[in-house]
Design brief:
The protein is α/β, with parallel strands linked by helices. The chain folds into two domains: 4-153 and 340-355, Rossmann fold; 158-337, Rossmann fold, CATH 3.40.50.2000. Helix content is 39%, strand content 18%. It has 14 helices and 14 strands. It has helices spanning 23-33, 69-72, 75-84, 100-105, 112-125, 134-140, 156-159, 189-205, 237-247, 261-264, 269-276, 306-318, 320-337, 344-355, and strands at residues 4-9, 11-15, 18-21, 43-48, 60-64, 88-93, 128-131, 147-149, 178-183, 210-215, 227-229, 252-255, 280-284, 300-302. It has a six-stranded parallel beta sheet, sandwiched between helices. Helix 6 (134-140) links the parallel strand 7 and strand 8. Helix 8 (189-205) crosses helix 12.
Length: 359
C-alpha cells in the first residue's frame, strides 16, 4: 500500500469558487509532490485552508508556512495524536518568517511576532523541515532537528518549458516598441523604488520606442513608473501562469531586489519565471540570484544604483541580438536544470526521509 501524504498548502485567501492556494503552495507543495512520477510511490492529497488530517488518515503531513487561524490553537494536540498514531510531519518554508521587522516593513502580516512563534513551533514539531535556500536553512537550524534544502523549480507542463523553443516567441521588428516588464506583489515596493528613477529615465529617453509594464505590484498604489497591468481574478497559480504567459509578451524582464537580510534568504523563483517567459533578464547583482544569474551569459547583473540600471537597459533596448541570446540561454537553463519533473528524485527522497524518521 502506498504511503498516504496529506499536503497542507498555504492559501491566498478566498475566491468565489473557494480558497485559492497561494503561488508558493503550488510551487513548493502541490505541483512537486503530486506529479505523475511520484504517484506510483505515494498517495497524495492537497488541501488549502481545510481541516488537519484525521489521525490515522495519513502517514505523512506536509505543512506549509502557516495554518489558517481556526486551526492554529489545535495544532499541538493534533500533532501529538497524529504522531502517536505513527504519522510524520514535514514543515515547508520559503521565506524567513522569523524576521518580524522585515515582514512589518513589507506590510504583512500584522501578527509578525505571533507568526514567528508559530513557525518555531511548527519547525520544532516536524520530523523534517524543507526550505528553498541554504541561507534560510541556516536560520532554521536552531529550531528544527533536521533541515533540508529543496530548491524552487517550475512545472514544465504549466510553463511549457519542455516544448521546442518553449516560451520564446517572435519579437517585434525595428519599428515595434521594446517591451519591458516586471511581475510581483505589493510587498516589493522597496525593490521597485530602487529602480524607479532609472525606469522613469528610460521612459523619457525612449518615448515611443520602449514600453514598461508592471503586473501586480501597483494594484493598490499609484505606479512609480510604467503602465499598471491588473492581475486576473482567479488567484490560483496555474491560472496565473496561463494568464502571465499570454499577457506578458516582454522583451526584457527586470528583477530589482534590495540587498537586505530578509531578501538574502529568498529564492531565485522570480528569475526562473522570467526566464520561462522568454524575456532577457536584468537583475540586481545580489546573493539571492548568484547561483543562477551569470552576467553576459543568461542575463545582465547590475549594481543597485540608477546609472547601472539605465546603462543595462539602454544596452538591451539597442541590441535585439543580445536580448535573444540572453533570453535563450536563461530559458534553456531552466528547462534543463530547474523543473519539478527534473527534481522528482529529490522530492521522493524528502518524503522517504520523513517517513523513515524515528521518534
Amino acid at each position: 500500500m502506498r504511503p498516504r501524504v496529506a499536503l497542507l498548502a498555504a492559501t491566498a485567501g478566498r475566491r468565489r469558487d473557494g480558497p485559492a492556494i497561494a503561488p508558493a503552495g503550488y510551487v513548493r507543495v502541490a505541483l512537486p509532490y503530486t506529479q505523475p512520477a511520484l504517484l506510483g510511490w505515494f498517495d497524495p492529497g492537497v488541501t488549502a485552508g481545510g481541516p488537519l488530517p484525521a489521525v490515522g488518515s495519513a502517514d505523512l503531513a506536509v505543512l506549509q508556512r502557516d495554518l489558517p487561524e481556526p486551526l492554529r490553537d489545535g495544532f499541538a494536540a493534533w500533532h501529538r495524536d497524529f504522531r502517536n498514531a505513527g504519522g510524520r510531519l514535514v514543515y515547508e518554508l520559503d521565506d524567513d518568517l522569523l524576521d518580524g521587522d522585515a515582514l512589518r516593513l513589507r506590510s504583512a502580516p500584522r501578527d509578525a511576532g505571533a507568526l514567528a512563534d508559530r513557525v518555531r513551533a511548527y519547525a520544532a514539531a516536524a520530523d523534517l523541515v524543507t526550505v528553498s535556500t541554504p541561507t534560510l536553512a541556516g536560520r532554521l537550524a536552531d529550531h528544527a532537528a533536521k533541515v533540508r534544502v529543496v530548491p524552487n523549480a517550475l512545472d514544465a507542463r504549466l510553463w511549457r518549458t519542455g516544448e521546442p523553443g518553449g516560451a520564446l516567441r517572435p519579437r517585434p521588428g525595428p519599428s515595434g516598441p521594446v517591451r519591458i516588464g516586471y511581475m510581483g506583489t505589493a510587498t516589493h515596493g522597496a525593490d521597485l523604488a530602487l529602480v524607479s528613477e532609472a525606469m522613469r529615465a528610460i521612459e523619457t529617453r525612449f518615448a515611443g520606442r520602449a514600453a514598461i509594464e508592471v503586473a501586480g505590484a501597483f494594484e493598490r498604489a499609484e505606479p512609480l513608473f510604467g503602465a499598471r497591468i491588473a492581475l486576473p481574478a482567479d488567484a490560483r497559480y496555474p491560472a496565473f501562469v496561463r494568464w502571465i504567459r499570454a499577457a506578458a509578451d516582454w522583451d526584457i524582464a527586470i528583477i530589482p531586489l534590495v540587498d537586505d537580510g530578509f531578501n538574502r534568504a529568498k529564492s531565485d523563483l522570480k528569475f526562473l519565471e522570467s526566464a520561462a517567459l522568454g524575456a532577457a533578464i536584468v537583475c540586481s547583482d545580489v546573493p539571492t540570484y548568484r547561483d543562477v544569474a551569470r552576467d553576459g551569459h543568461n542575463c545582465l547583473c547590475v549594481a543597485n544604483d540608477t546609472g547601472a540600471w539605465i546603462a543595462a537597459l539602454e544596452r538591451l533596448i539597442a541590441d535585439a541580438g543580445l536580448r535573444r541570446r540572453l533570453a535563450g540561454a536563461a530559458h534553456r537553463e531552466v528547462a534543463a536544470r530547474r523543473t519539478v519533473q527534473g527534481q522528482a528524485g529529490l522530492y521522493r527522497d524528502v518524503l522517504d526521509a520523513a517517513l523513515g524518521a524515528t521518534a
